[in-house]
User: Which sequence fits this backbone?
């Protein structure tokens, strides 16, 4: 049992409809002293697997012995989650490009500033839960400033960004606040797509609990995953045309050979194949893809493939 459960709802601002925009936070305060662990989700409003997992994690963790405090922000970008959108509907900005935020800026910049002040600037380690939106499904973890912490989540494919190579490298993200403070930052990408999210949510719960064991926040032995692969280059491949995108690739986490097909786009109107796209690396590994035939617009999120050349254990 935790010693205390404390709710906070710091105000971001007052909106035009007269309601207050707040940031909902719940602290699980352990009997023993220790670090403040921050777990947050839905900084992108159409990636809600982590928000669902935090509901279940709350009920599990409140009955556990905790060293320190676990601060939960289950939904960072509530307005965006409500309309199932990546961008906040008030200013149409990507919240995860606005950090450290600006209290005098647009709504997303104000939200970023409040989240930085109340959460990112106070925690001692951060688990930042993302997923693959409501259509593509994703499965990898960033290795940033604490590899053991990130590895403990238990995903097979890990990504160590390399300045000289292509990949998912962005500025203005949550790590722009945590990493200068020396706070271990783990960015998790898991789930999404028009498939049952249950197995992904179970993996998020198990992964977060293993990370907490790794840091000694909860009791028990950490489980290690022996087949992890670290890539330092990721190709992001978007369909150039709109239509039905049809998957042709292996399952996420599986190798994919150079030149073998990833997907094709078929016209819903004339039934012709508009394009077929192949794996760009001689030896790749699947990181993101659509798992079902989905309607895409030209240039939508499509596939991500890691480069196995230069990959390590
Ligand atoms: Zn995201």
Assistant:
């Amino acid at each position: 049992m935790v010693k205390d459960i404390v709710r906070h709802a710091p105000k971001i601002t007052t909106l035009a409809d007269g309601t207050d925009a707040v940031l909902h936070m719940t602290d699980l305060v352990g009997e023993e002293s220790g670090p403040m662990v921050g777990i947050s989700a839905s900084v992108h409003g159409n990636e809600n697997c982590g928000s669902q997992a935090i509901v279940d994690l709350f009920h599990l963790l409140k009955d556990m012995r905790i060293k320190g405090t676990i601060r939960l922000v289950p939904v960072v970008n509530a307005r965006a989650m409500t309309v199932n959108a990546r961008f906040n509907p008030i200013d149409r900005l990507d919240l995860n490009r606005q950090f450290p935020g600006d209290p005098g800026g647009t709504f997303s910049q104000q939200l970023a500033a409040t989240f930085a002040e109340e959460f990112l600037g106070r925690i001692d380690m951060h688990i930042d839960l993302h997923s693959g939106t409501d259509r593509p499904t994703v499965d990898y973890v960033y290795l940033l400033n604490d590899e053991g912490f990130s590895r403990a989540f238990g995903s097979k494919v890990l990504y160590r960004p390399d300045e000289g190579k292509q990949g998912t490298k962005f500025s203005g993200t949550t790590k722009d606040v945590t990493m200068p403070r020396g706070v271990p930052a783990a960015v998790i990408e898991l789930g999404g797509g028009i498939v049952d999210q249950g197995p992904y949510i179970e993996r998020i719960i198990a992964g977060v609990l293993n990370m907490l064991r790794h840091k000694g926040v909860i009791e028990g032995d950490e489980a290690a995953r022996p087949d992890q692969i670290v890539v330092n280059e990721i190709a992001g491949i978007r369909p150039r045309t709109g239509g039905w995108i049809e998957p042709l690739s292996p399952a996420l986490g599986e190798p994919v050979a150079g030149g073998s097909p990833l997907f094709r786009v078929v016209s819903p109107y004339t039934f012709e194949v508009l394009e077929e796209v192949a794996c760009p690396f001689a030896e790749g590994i699947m990181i993101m893809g659509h798992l079902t035939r989905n309607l895409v617009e030209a240039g939508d999120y499509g596939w991500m493939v890691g480069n196995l050349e230069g990959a390590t254990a």
About this structure: The chain has two domains: 4-229, 233-307. The domain at 4-229 is CATH 3.40.630.10 (Aminopeptidase).
